[in-house]
Structures are given as C-alpha cells and as structure tokens.
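Protocol step 4 of 5: obtain the predicted structure for the target chain.
Materials: sequence only (see below). No template structures provided, no constraints applied. The aim of this step is simply to have a reference model before the mutagenesis design in step 5. Sequence pasted as it appears in the construct record:
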Amino acid sequence: VLASLGAAFLLVWLGKGFWSIVVGYSPHSVVYACTFTALVWLLRPIPLSAIRFRPEHARTLFSYGRWFWIGWITSVLLFQYDKLVVGPLHGARALGIYERAFTFAQMPTGAITHALIGITNPLYSRYQQDREKLSAIFARVAGLILRTALPIALVIFTEADALVDLLLGERWTPMAPVLKWFVAYSFLRPLLDDVNSLLYAVGRPRQVTWFGLLQAALFLPMAPALTHTFGLNGAATSVGLIALVGVGLSLGYTRKLITVPWRQVFLPPVVAIPAAGASAYRIQELPLPETPWLRLACEVALMSAVYFLVLAALEGRRLWRESRGLIALFRSGAMPVD
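Step 4 output (structure tokens):
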C-alpha cells in the first residue's frame, strides 16, 4: 500500500496525473500487485521451473473462485448503483452532497470493519470444524461490532448538523439530513461484512453471492423509486433497507453453521441505545460551553456515558469477561470458551 501511494505521489509530482491513478490509486494497482508478489516470493521462494499451467488446478480454482468474482461484482453494484441513480435524477450538486454523506456515514464504522475482518477471517477459518468455538468467536465479535457501531450511529444521527457545520462548513449544511438517513446503513454494514467474512471463511462464497444477487434484484427497482419519490433521503433509505435484507439473509443462513444466543448479543445494546438517544435531548438543555467544538464534545461524552452506564448495568460482568477473552484471542489466536 505504501509503495502504491509513493508511486502515485511521485507521478503526480512529475505531472503525470492520469498515470498516477492507474499505477497507484487502486488497491490492486500495478505497483501493489508487483510489490505483493515480490514479498510473497521472498517469503516462500519457489523455482521458476515449478511455474507452469496445471489444468486440474485451474479448474479447481475457477470452480471455487468464480463465486468470489461474481460476488465482488455484485458488491460493487450494490454500493455504487444508488449514485448512478441520484446523478441523473437530481443533478451533479445533489450527487456531490449524497456522495459526501455516504462517505461520512460509513467512515467511522467502516474503520471497525477494517480493523476486525483481517483478524476474524483467519480465526473463523481455523475453527470452522468446531461449532462451539466458532459460535463463541462469532457471538463475541458480533457483540463487539453492535456495541461500538450503534453508539457511533447515534452520534451521527443526533449531531449530524453540528458535525457537518464544524467539519465542512455552512455550504454543506444540506448534507446533514441525508447523513441522518444513512444511520441504518452505518451500523448494519459492519455486521453484514462480519457475517460475510464468516461465510467466506468456512467455504460458503456461493451463499454470499446468491444473497448479493437477491439484494441487487430488490435494489434495482427500489433505489430509483425511493429516490424519485423522496429525493436524497429516499436513496439513503434504500441503501439501509438493502443492507438490512443482507443482514437478515446472512444471519438466517448462519444458523446452519453456528449456535448463537441472539438475545444476549442484541438485547443489551438495543436497550441502551434508546436510553442514550432520549438523554441527547435533555443534554441539549444543559448549560454547556458555547464554543461549538467544546459543546459537541460534551454532548457526545455525556451521551456515551449514558449508553455505557446502561450497558454496564445490563451486562457489566459478562462484558468485561468477554472483552478480556477477545483481547486474548486477538493476541494469541487461542480460543477460550467459558
């Protein structure tokens, strides 16, 4: 990644803007691919004479890999199609507002996904033959995602106006209402990515692809209809609804693979979030600092305190025990099952 970025900046500095995008922008760019191949070769060198085409291996790879290929194409469609709809229906300015709201909505919770998936995917794969341990890992990770993504989504919803004004300025004020409608997508996307990671890890890419195709079939008519009727808010709502469909389909299928105490995973954060949301309106009545940054920080801190206090009251000991278990798991890869 660093090599790709370095090559891109160098080409920009040399005035080769187009080639900087080709060479360095994409994660699968020329520089990235060459650097990654060289590093793999250095770690596991093989003689050049061993490199040859093997039809039986090619058939195996294609038979399994085609589902990844189709699945990624479907994923690109799912998360880019709404922008193709917004532009023609509402113009370039509206598309800019929508695109920026989409980026802001997924940025905080997307960081959670990025941090966890690289760790959980090999763990899911390691324990795919042990239903008890696989279930325990997934329950803990899904619980962690929900308990962090939901309060972030709440902050985005309650503080959207202040966040937009402070980070982007008044000219982006129309983005705030759209950002609020992305809240469902904001906390559902990390959970969907985690469930799909589980299915990929245990060798079920076909199911991920079929669920994606079903989502796409619903999204194709839904996005234009809601965007035409309700504008940018309708487009954002369609994205959230499709994410909800994906989570429902994937979680439903996981019942064949794992046994998870869903009430224990979902109920505490679902109870804590309304309490924190209700406190947000009372917090605004408090004599907080007038400086916008300080006021926003105080409101977020107080809301977070209410959320975590309710969460601690509902499951304090278990939350502490599972947090320690997750830390030990990520550090060593050993799976403690209580």
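Step 4 remarks: The chain has a mean pLDDT of 85. The two ends are 39 Å apart (CA to CA).
Proceed to step 5.
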